[in-house]
Prior knowledge:
The chain is an all-alpha fold. The chain has one domain. Helix content is 83%, strand content 0%. It is elongated and about 60 Å long.
Amino acid sequence: MNILILVAVMLLGLVMIPFGLPGTWIIAAAALGYQLLVPGSISMFVVIAVIVLALIGELLEFSLTTKYTKKYGGSRRASWGAIIGGMIGAFMGVPVPVVGSVLGAFAGAFAGAFVGEFSRAGEGGTATRVATGALVGRAVAAAMKIAIGIAMAAWVLFAAVY
C-alpha cells in the first residue's frame, strides 16, 4: 500500500512540472517522507541526491531561459523580462483548464523578453528575435526539467522497491 501512495505522489509531481508548478520538489519531499515513514526503504544518499537534482532542475530552468535570450541577441533586461514574464504568465494562465499555465508561461516569457528588449533598444524586429529566443529557452528548460523529474521519480521508486 505504501508503494502505491509513493507512485501516486511521484505521478502527481511529474504532472505538475510542465505546468510550472514545483513538481520536482514534490518528488523530493515524497522521497524524504517515504524514507522517514518506511524505515530501511530509501537510503539518505538517494534522498540527498534527489534534492540536489531538484535544485539543478530549478537552476537549469532559469539559466536556460537567460542563455537562449542572450544567444538571440538579448540584453540583461530582456533576460529578466523573460524570467519574470514566464512566472507571471504561468500564474495568470491558471484559470484556463489543463494547459493555461503552460501556455501562460511560454507567452509570458515571450512577452517579458519582448518588452524588456523593446524598452532598451526600441526596435520591434530585434525585440521579436530576442523574444523568440526566450520562448525557445523556456521550451528547452521545460523539457530538461521534465527529464530530470522522470529520472528523480524512477530513482526513488527503484530505491523504494529494491
